[in-house]
Design a protein that fits this description.
The complex is a heterodimer. By secondary structure, chain A is of the alpha/beta class. Chain A has 6 helices and 11 strands. In chain A, strands 1, 2, 3, 4, 8, 9, 10 and 11 form an 8-stranded mixed sheet that branches. Chain B is globular, with a radius of gyration of 17 Å. Chain B is α/β, with parallel strands linked by helices. Chain B has a single domain, classed as Glutaconate Coenzyme A-transferase (3-Layer(aba) Sandwich). In chain B, 17% of the residues lie in helices and 25% in strands. In chain B, helix 4 links the parallel strand 14 and strand 15. Classes of the chains: A alpha/beta, B alpha/beta.
Chain lengths: 234, 224
């Protein structure tokens, strides 16, 4: 078994135009920044991206957006992204917005062999338009379909050569579900370690889901909104 | 962009009033912007745990300069800190606890609320595309939903309407509306005005509200 690839370029060598790709992260936190940069360099076009947000100008998925590589995007929040807003209003990109919990559960379902599920979220709103609704015990629910992808790009803090992954703090977010819901999951990690070095009780994503793994070349780990408190003097 | 002093004062009044609704042991989700400020006014002697839908329970204060961590943010993408008792989990676990009815209180802002308790806060068709983020899940399934907002728009137009005009975030989901003018309870028979800000009358509040208000039999002055 050899899942280790040399670098981000090697990891995405066979991603064709028109692929559907899940990309982990919440805002800029926990995004697979090396894989995104490699995809921007490769210039792969006509992509459908599935990611909670779409990065910022010049960083993260903002690179793919600005280069016109994304044809369709599914996510839950695109505020603070003027370029995307403009592209949607000018119909240059097809955007599907889903409630964040529904979005996340659709991905989980995709990886867990569940084709659809019912959720109370969005009942009575445009999110439920043209969807089946049903009464369970006096409450109304909306049927939502699973999401799957050709590739998932995930970022973990540490991973071993079998693809067992450990995430750090709130950088976990959508990465674990996305790792389960694609034909080919590629993990980039800050620390690539030998098999056996991770405590089995602490593995967040078992290696079965991961097809390729590498240590990211460069971690900028940009902060979107730095907020600090004053140090109280004594 | 800094807000004018008058607005800061309004916001302070709103979040202080909402903080008085907190109870010991509550697990609470505070929305982005003004609702986040409720955390600054937790009454002494009680413990509440703040949930952040990006995967954290037990949000601590903003970090000290130099200690900010790119892997540690709240749902508003601001750097925060952890505290004893903090836990981290995936987005799916986070929304399982929200959808599953485990969050005691959700406080969030709104562009419009109506007399049936429907709320709109995620898009203005043709003008603004922001996305609903986690708001639709929160309003659908938190045990109690409080809207924190200024009573009218910048132009003085009512935001509490007979019927929302914008695409809804949730239909018939709001329990309480707190503004700088009033504390309003959403009931099956309409909006009941429970508290009025100091120096205002029922008519003052009604004039700034499109929906009809029902004076509570125990109508009182809002505590500062």
């Amino acid at each position: 078994m050899n899942k280790v690839v040399a670098n981000s370029e090697d990891a995405i060598r066979d991603v064709p135009d028109g692929s559907t790709i899940m990309i982990g992260g919440f805002g800029l936190c926990g995004i697979p920044e090396n894989l995104i940069r490699a995809l921007a360099r490769k210039g792969t076009k006509n992509l459908t991206t599935i990611s909670n947000n779409v990065g910022v100008d010049g960083y993260g998925m903002g690179l793919l957006l600005a280069a016109g590589q994304i044809h369709r995007h599914i996510g839950s929040y695109v505020g603070e992204n003027k370029l995307l807003e403009q592209m949607v209003l000018e119909k240059k990109i097809d955007l599907e917005l889903a409630p964040q919990g529904t979005f996340s559960e659709r991905i989980r379902a995709g990886g867990a062999g569940i084709p659809a599920f019912f959720t109370p979220t969005g009942f009575g709103t445009i999110v439920a338009d043209n969807k089946e609704t049903r009464d369970f015990d006096g409450r109304m629910y909306v049927m939502e379909h699973a999401l799957k992808a050709d590739f998932a790009f995930v970022k973990a803090w540490k991973g071993d050569k079998w693809g067992n992954l450990v995430y750090r703090k709130t950088a976990r977010n959508f990465n674990p579900m996305m790792a389960t819901a694609a034909k080919i999951t590629i993990a980039e990690v800050e620390y690539l370690v030998e098999v056996g070095e991770i405590d089995p009780d602490l593995v967040h994503t078992p290696g079965i889901y991961v097809k390729r793994i590498f240590q990211g070349e460069q971690y900028e780990r940009r902060i979107e909104r730095k907020t600090v408190r004053p140090v109280v003097g004594c | 962009m800094s807000k004018p002093a008058k607005d800061l004062d309004k916001r302070e009044r709103i979040v202080k009033r909402i903080a008085r609704e907190l109870r010991d042991g509550f697990y609470v989700n505070l929305g982005i912007g003004m609702p986040t400020l409720v955390a600054n006014h937790v009454p002494s002697g009680i413990q509440v745990v703040l949930q952040s839908e990006n995967g954290m329970l037990g949000i601590g204060p903003y970090p000290i300069e130099g200690q900010e961590d790119p892997d540690l943010i709240n749902a508003g993408k601001e750097t925060v800190s952890e505290m004893p008792g903090t836990s981290y989990f995936s987005s799916t676990d986070s929304f399982a606890m929200i959808r599953g009815g485990h969050i005691d209180l959700s406080v969030l802002g709104a562009m419009e609320v109506d007399e049936e308790g429907s709320i709109a806060n995620w898009t203005i068709p043709g003008k603004m595309i922001k996305g609903m983020g986690g708001a639709m899940d929160l309003v659908a399934s938190a045990r109690r939903v409080i809207v924190a907002m200024e009573h009218t728009t910048r132009e003085g137009q009512p935001k509490i309407l007979k019927k929302c005009t914008l695409p809804l975030t949730g239909s018939k989901v709001v329990d309480t509306i707190v503004t700088e003018m009033a504390y309003i309870r959403v009931t099956p028979t309409g909006l009941v005005l429970e508290e009025i800000a100091v120096a205002l009358t029922f008519d003052d509040v009604q004039r700034a509200t499109e929906a009809r208000l029902i004076p509570s039999p125990t109508l009182r002055t809002m505590e500062a």
